């Protein structure tokens, strides 16, 4: 290494060290050295979130991404596919790649599946998340409108339950962000800006029934109830249908001192008064 190259290397090192010590915005400082766990990382929202975190919060810690094996493709291979993702006509990670070529080293793949107990994680991976994760983004969901009940419910409802259980166990957790699926009541001629109850009752046993029903029963149900599938398989809608008060899932977490951000603006009736549910609720 010649003297000029050595000086350049030293300058680059000092520049990076200086940048790391510069106080950033409140959001950047919040994420500084914090480790993040993301489900649904290979989906559209997941890709945008990861790119935004890495680009706007360069001092964020590691980002653990839950990826399952899909169609014979291993999680690590799906991670590489994610990094080549295209949004509009541009590769989403191109700007980040130009400014921080080694950004991918912050991405840590954990193999799992939201439809399985404990997210299908190995004991060692589960323990790592418990000990190291500070922030959780739960984005994973099936968004197929013709999905079978016994597939949609374990993912969209069961997965959310497993995430909450993980949150309870995390020793350094600061916040959990749950992004719900969305459903448009397209079977109605006129759709108002209000919450529509499911067209049939959801009692305490429906989850068990739908998850264990035989294929023949599921096929019989499909023509009649597919139109409201996402009202059922959406964890937020499930909570609303099971509670006379504000989001029961929120109260469940509130008692555990979990900080939640609800990316959902909903109109519902609270003790006879129409109330607009705030976008953000319950911080500890």
Highlighted features:
disordered N terminus, lipid metabolism, alcohol-forming very long-chain fatty acyl-CoA reductase activity, two-stranded antiparallel ribbon, EC 1.2.1.84, seven-stranded mixed beta sheet, disordered C terminus, 12 helices, Fatty acyl-CoA reductase, 284 residues, FAR_NAD-bd, single chain, Rossmann fold, alpha/beta
The main β sheet shows up as:
7 strands, mixed
Strand content: 5-15%
Overall strand count: 11
How large, in whole angstroms, is the Cα Rg?
22 Å
Order of helices and strands: HHEHEHEEHEHEHEHHHHHEEEE
User: Which topology does CATH recognise?
Assistant: Rossmann fold
Broad structural category: alpha/beta
In the predicted model, the low-confidence regions spanning at least 5 consecutive residues are: 2-8, 223-233, 239-252, 263-284
How would you describe this protein?
This protein has one domain: 3-Layer(aba) Sandwich (Rossmann fold), CATH 3.40.50. The chain contains twelve helices and eleven strands. The chain has helices at residues 3-21, 26-31, 44-56, 75-83, 94-99, 123-132, 149-169, 206-212, 215-225, 229-233, 235-241, 248-254, and strands spanning 36-39, 63-67, 86-87, 90-91, 107-111, 135-138, 175-178, 260-262, 267-270, 273-276, 280-281. It has a seven-stranded mixed beta sheet with strand order 5-2-1-6-7-8-11. Strands 3-4 form a two-stranded antiparallel sheet. The protein is globular, with a radius of gyration of 22 Å. The termini are far apart.
């Amino acid at each position: 290494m010649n003297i000029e190259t050595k000086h350049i290397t030293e300058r680059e090192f000092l520049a990076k060290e200086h940048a790391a010590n510069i106080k950033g915005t409140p959001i950047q400082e919040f994420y500084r050295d914090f480790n993040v766990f993301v489900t649904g990382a290979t989906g559209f929202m997941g890709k945008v979130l990861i790119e935004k975190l890495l680009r706007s919060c360069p001092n964020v810690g590691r980002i653990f991404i839950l990826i399952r094996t899909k169609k014979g493709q291993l999680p690590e291979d799906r991670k590489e596919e994610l990094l080549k993702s295209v949004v509009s006509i541009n590769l989403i990670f191109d700007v980040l790649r130009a400014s921080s070529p080694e950004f991918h080293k912050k991405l840590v793949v954990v193999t799992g599946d939201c439809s399985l107990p404990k997210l299908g994680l190995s004991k060692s991976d589960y323990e790592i998340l418990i000990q190291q994760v500070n922030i959780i983004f739960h984005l994973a969901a099936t968004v197929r409108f013709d999905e079978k009940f016994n597939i949609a419910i374990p993912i969209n409802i069961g997965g959310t339950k497993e995430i909450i259980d993980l949150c309870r166990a995390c020793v350094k957790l600061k916040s959990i962000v749950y992004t719900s699926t969305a459903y448009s009541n397209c079977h109605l001629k006129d759709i108002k800006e209000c919450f529509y109850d499911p067209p049939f009752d959801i009692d305490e046993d429906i989850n068990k029934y739908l998850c264990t029903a035989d294929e023949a029963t599921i096929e019989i149900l499909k023509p009649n109830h597919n139109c409201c599938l996402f009202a059922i398989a959406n964890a937020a809608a499930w909570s609303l249908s099971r509670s006379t008060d504000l989001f029961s899932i929120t109260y469940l977490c509130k008692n555990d001192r979990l900080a939640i951000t609800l990316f959902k603006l909903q109109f519902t009736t609270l003790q006879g008064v129409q109330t607009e549910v705030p976008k953000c609720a319950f911080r500890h």
